[in-house]
Amino acid sequence: MTFGSSVMTGPPDTHERARHHERAVSDAATAYAALPPDQPVRLAKHTSNLFRTRSAPTAAGLDLSALQGVVELDPRARTARVGGLTTYEQLVDELLPHGFVPLVVPQLRTITIGGAVTGLGIEASSFRNGLPHESVLELRILTGTGEVVTATPDGDHADLFRTFPNSYGSLGYALDLVIELEPALPYVCLRHVRFPSVEQLVAAVDEVMTTRAHEGERVDFVDGVVFSATECYLTLARWTDDLEGRVRPSDYTGDQVFYRSIQTRRRDVLTAHDYLWRWDTDWFWCSRAFGAQIPAVRRLWPRHLLRSDVYWRIVAFEHRHRVMGRIDHLRGQPPRERVVQDVEIPLGRTADFVAWFLREVPIEPIWLCPIQLRSRGDGQRGVTDGDPPWPLYPLRPDERYVNVGFWSTVPIAPGAADGDVNRAIERQVTEHGGHKSLYSDAYYDEATFARLYGDTAYRPVKRRYDPDGRFPTLYEKAVQAR
């Protein structure tokens, strides 16, 4: 395979990439073996997209940062081998000039492909391309025993291949992955369609997921924003190589804010690069909490610092030092509960769930993103009829879902406790037949968590690949935040 070529034998830099990557894989195993065997292990990273309150790390840190970049690209097969610590920003930068992108590019630049696969990643292509782990053909994983294994759907490590998604590093770390790609065009044409109710928006989502079109136009991407019960939008987008008469594409990386354009523009065009990162510049709409959407502040805010990882560091600083929390206390303001969650609700129950949320939780806007799994697990060893193809996040392949995302804080009412709102959301998600992503705070008791997140499949794989418990269990990571 070659990088940037349609033939199988490549230039010297391609071979050097592969040699460098193999050294990094070998070094990772050596570094793991050198860690104290009586201590738990964690991944040493400078950035994160997790929102769990956790104490200062006591586990040994494993640095896998050398495992980055596109190692090999096969344009004919539309596949690439990539390092597990490669951010999607780097993936896009390396693949887009060759006319390709991953099948699903999560919304935030610093999400790594290994993180999206061992966690959960979604985007506006998920209604046709599913979740990032569904486009993985092969994984090399560093396990708790220190062994590097190659996991495929039908090989000797098929059990690890199935349970690795949503395991959050509790079964091992992805050193590299072979992923499917799709062709990309230079631009993306957008339509923002307003609906007077969530019910009508959901009906339109059902149509788009069935026909992959709306009012005669092809739809390659779809997501939505609910500003209120009577102001809801779908953004329907498609690849294009035609600016359709416009002088230049719109730019939402500076003074303009993308989500506000949804309310004021019916059509728009972005470059492919800017479309993929349209939500990152303002962390969807969360940059308003830092004053970054106030025109006077925005003019002074350096453009290159309008990005999600900068806002995340500000939030992390506040969580450590509680500066604003103390100021609010001095002002007589109530303490606040963090409500940062993404949940998957069956399409037919989405309007009911959103109605409950808008009535009970004072957060707006909220994000909607349709999802349907690509496969039924066909070809995966150990999967029988009726089994979920990905047991640790058991979405049903014959069901359509909508991701509902909401990211803010709410005041803690008198007599209430921190966590009450999140617990109520968890109950509603379960009652509506949905599932909650585990990147943020979770409050489930251990028995409920085991039932919801595939413990029957997880336990034997955990015993096989991490018999000494070098990695925290999924429950310890997701709920106890270890």
Account of the 3D structure:
The protein is an alpha+beta fold. It has a domain at 12-183: Uridine Diphospho-n-acetylenolpyruvylglucosamine Reductase, domain 3. The protein is 31% helix and 23% strand. The protein has 16 helices and 18 strands. The chain has helices at 12-34, 88-95, 113-118, 126-129, 158-163, 198-211, 258-264, 272-276, 295-300, 308-321, 323-330, 347-360, 420-431, 446-452, 455-465, 474-478, and strands spanning 41-43, 60-62, 70-74, 79-83, 100-102, 136-143, 148-151, 172-183, 187-195, 213-214, 217-218, 221-228, 231-240, 267-271, 336-346, 366-371, 401-411, 435-436. The strands form four sheets. Strands 14-9-13-12-16-17-15-18 form an eight-stranded antiparallel sheet, sandwiched between helices. Strands 3, 4, 5, 6, 7 and 8 form a six-stranded antiparallel sheet that branches. Strands 1-2 form a two-stranded parallel ribbon. Strand 6 and strand 7 form a beta hairpin. Helix 6 (198-211) packs antiparallel against helix 12 (347-360). It is globular and about 55 Å long. The model is unreliable at 1-11 (pLDDT under 50).
Total helix count?
16
Ranges where pLDDT stays below 50 over 5 or more residues in a row are 1-11
What is the CA-CA span between the terminal residues?
Answer: 40 Å
Q: CATH topology of the domain at 12-183, which one? A: Uridine Diphospho-n-acetylenolpyruvylglucosamine Reductase, domain 3
Number of strands: 18
Structural class category: alpha+beta
Q: What is the level 1 CATH name of the domain at 12-183?
A: Alpha Beta
Q: What's the CATH architecture of the domain at 12-183?
A: 2-Layer Sandwich
Q: Average pLDDT, to the nearest integer?
A: 91
Estimated helix fraction: 25-40%
- The geometry reads as globular
User: What kind of sheet is the major sheet?
Assistant: 8 strands, antiparallel
Radius of gyration: 22 Å
- In spatial order, strands of the major sheet run 14-9-13-12-16-17-15-18
